[in-house]
Amino acid sequence: MDFGFGAEDEELRGHARAWLAEHLVGPYARAVGLGGPGSEHQGVEARREWERELGRGGWIGQGWDAPDGVYGQRRLSLTGQVVWAEEYAALRAPGRVGHIGENLLAPTLIAYGSQEQQRRFLPAVARGEELWCQGYSEPGAGSDLAGIRTAAVRDPADGLFRVTGQKIWTSLAREADWCFVLARTEPGSKRHRGLSFLLVRMDQPGRVEVRPIRQMSGTSEFNEVFFDGAVAAEVVGAEGDGWTVAMGLLALERGVSTLVQQIGFAAELERVLGLYAASGAADPVVRDRLVRQWAELRTMRWNALRTLGAQGDPGAPSVAKLLWGGWHRRLGELAVEVRGAAAAAGPGTWAPGLPYEHGLDEEQRLFLFTRADTIYGGSDEIQRNIIAERVLGLPKESR
């Protein structure tokens, strides 16, 4: 696929840049650079209102496979979506709190949901008014998602499901209005069978409880979510067909957003390069590793552009995850190595009563958070299994 940008794309680039400059003012300007992986706790209220601002501008749902204007969003080509994403990241616009609803839930509803579900949920996502989180992983069923135990039983009195169980590593659960939950709806079912994809309202006092999980970086962007008879009125797809829907969603998880992520990576690499230059060090080994990081980042960009047009490629998301997860983790290691002994020191400005993260500098925070990059979102081992089994056709791993 030729991924060159044409005149129409460059015109959009100028329009996007102008719109962002015009609207990133006031409280939104103060939220510039806030949010995203490792810092989802920052500027939440301003970022939530910014989501509505994006909705008013029609910038949410640009790639949805729906008729133009149905949900008030701009329909952009694939290259146009890349242009918008690049300009958004280049200006360090606030980290999106609505990306799970826009990039995961909405395409899944378009692919598997009913027209009634699409009409009910997509307009609110497009307006930036309803936020979503993902209820997949559980204790003991993270990478091995088929082992989930959260159960949902249909109440014969009203026909609604009652969900009971626990989910873990749930990003944005405290901010979300809704959660899409993979639950076992067939008693006694095993593995991939008997699962359903349910939509659960988070505002159910006494039935849904969110507990933040404190990380070693001092932040708590991940959460535990406990369901105790929570009501779920909506099933996406057929009851018992949740595994198909869940896997379809995961195939949609990595696309244009990967390119946005890489722009953030480039800024982090630039900072590390600056620290190395300022240190006056002349270590050829470190210098070689920094050059490799630069070259690998360029390669990841070309690979992301190449695979954007590869619809239905079962290995593309796993290859991308392996590339960026390992790359980012190595950057975190380089960041503290370039800093030298100072990076090993404890928080210099921390005092009792302050969060631990208050005393961490950018390099320390980068190092600590990137320890998780090769684990969350599907561990490296799982990604390699997917490539081996679904792409190379190798025998499945024995259990």
In short:
The chain has 399 residues and is an alpha+beta fold. It is built from twelve helices and seven strands.
- Count of separate structural domains: 3
**Which runs of at least 5 residues are low in confidence (pLDDT < 50)?**
349-357
Write the CATH fold name of the largest domain. Butyryl-CoA Dehydrogenase, subunit A, domain 3
Main sheet attributes: strand count, strand direction, barrel closure: 7 strands, mixed
Shape: globular
Describe the secondary-structure layout:
Blueprint: H1 7-23, H2 27-30, H3 44-56, H4 78-90, H5 99-112, H6 115-126, E1 132-135, E2 151-154, E3 161-167, E4 178-184, E5 195-201, E6 208-212, E7 223-236, H7 242-251, H8 256-279, H9 284-308, H10 316-339, H11 362-369, H12 380-391
Parallel strand pairs: 1-4
Antiparallel strand pairs: 2-3, 3-7, 4-5, 5-7, 6-7
Describe, in plain words, how this protein is organized in 3D:
By secondary structure, the protein is of the alpha+beta class. It has three domains: 7-97, no CATH class; 132-249, Butyryl-CoA Dehydrogenase, subunit A, domain 2 (Beta Barrel); 254-391, Butyryl-CoA Dehydrogenase, subunit A, domain 3 (Up-down Bundle). The protein has twelve helices and seven strands. The chain has helices spanning 7-23, 27-30, 44-56, 78-90, 99-112, 115-126, 242-251, 256-279, 284-308, 316-339, 362-369, 380-391, and strands spanning 132-135, 151-154, 161-167, 178-184, 195-201, 208-212, 223-236. Strands 1, 2, 3, 4, 5, 6 and 7 form a seven-stranded mixed sheet that branches. A hairpin with a 6-residue loop joins strand 2 and strand 3 (161-167). Helix 5 (99-112) packs across helix 7 (242-251), helix 9 packs antiparallel against helix 10 (316-339) and helix 10 runs antiparallel to helix 12 (380-391). The longest helix is centred in the last third of the chain and has 25 residues, at 284-308. It starts with 6 loop residues before the first helix and ends in an 8-residue tail after the last helix. The model is unreliable at 349-357 (pLDDT under 50).
